[in-house]
Design the sequence.
């Protein structure tokens, strides 16, 4: 049975931040060994309960650590680590982006939690403002996701999926809390009107790897991002942006980076000419 549940818990993004930092430093026997060294070096967690169970499995599912050696970072993990060492806030942004987009570029049963993550942001944007701390919200979101998975059960990957729970939604919320600018306003999901240009550039890069946007998109091809287009929907969802601001942010990115070109005639279109990396702008 395929798993769509988002693993995590309180302070899971912070635990990942320390895990990558320490795992890069030497040889460790297992994930518990890494987390023991995290506590020794940083005193994390200093108080309270932090769920680090299956953290290695989680990172392996998303291609951040090696599947057969979960104490070793992949190239993607190395890129995220370099960002972390320069800008911790940007790290949390790119971690969320990576989770939200990974199923689109690597569709498999192992990456279905990414589908859940993306669809949760999509639902919140469509129904904002949403009080994310209320139990009723978790129940509503989980019910919506379960129904959508059921409707798509002709898709082989969603044909026999495991159950979602309120915990799935609560774990998701832990990942969006560190985002800056925030998508939350006093516990209410509102989406945002701006996002770091580096994050948007990487979101655009992910669009080239997603058949959701255009089935045969190559780097250098123009992607339509006018409101209502698949490109607009993808970018606003993975960045947590309110729909009407996508074009404005794209135009700003085009002015800032020579790698990005934004054009406008009957429709607004944008392109990048070659693949970007997470640490390209750090």
Sequence:
């Amino acid at each position: 049975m395929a798993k769509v549940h988002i693993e995590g818990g309180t302070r899971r993004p912070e635990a990942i931040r320390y895990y990558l930092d320490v795992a890069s430093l030497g040889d460790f026997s297992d994930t518990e060994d890494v987390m023991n060294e995290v506590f020794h070096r940083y005193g994390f967690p200093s108080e309270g309960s932090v769920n680090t169970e299956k953290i290695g499995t989680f990172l392996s599912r998303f291609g951040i650590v090696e599947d057969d050696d979960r104490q070793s970072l992949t190239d993607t993990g190395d890129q995220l680590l370099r960002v972390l060492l320069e800008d911790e806030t940007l790290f949390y942004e790119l971690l969320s982006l990576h989770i939200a987009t990974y199923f689109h570029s690597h569709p498999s049963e192992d990456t279905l939690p990414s589908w859940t993550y993306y669809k949760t942001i999509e639902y919140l944007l469509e129904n904002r403002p949403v009080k994310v701390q209320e139990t009723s919200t978790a129940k509503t979101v989980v019910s919506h996701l379960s129904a959508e998975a059921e409707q798509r059960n002709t898709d082989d990957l969603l044909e026999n999926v495991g159950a979602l729970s309120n915990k799935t939604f609560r774990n998701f919320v832990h990942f969006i809390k560190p985002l800056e600018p925030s998508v939350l306003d006093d516990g209410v999901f509102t989406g945002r009107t701006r996002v770091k240009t580096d994050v948007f550039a990487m979101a655009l890069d992910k669009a080239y790897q997603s058949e959701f946007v255009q089935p045969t998109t190559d780097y250098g091809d123009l992607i339509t991002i006018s409101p209502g287009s698949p490109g607009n929907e993808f970018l606003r969802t993975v960045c947590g942006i309110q729909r009407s601001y996508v074009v404005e942010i794209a135009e700003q990115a085009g002015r800032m980076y020579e790698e990005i070109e934004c054009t406008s005639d009957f429709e607004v279109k944008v392109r990048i000419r070659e693949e970007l990396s997470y640490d390209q702008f750090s």
Notes: DSSP finds eleven helices and eight strands in the chain. The CA atoms of residues 114 and 207 lie 15 Å apart. Residues 88-105 form the longest helix (18 residues). The chain has a mean pLDDT of 89.
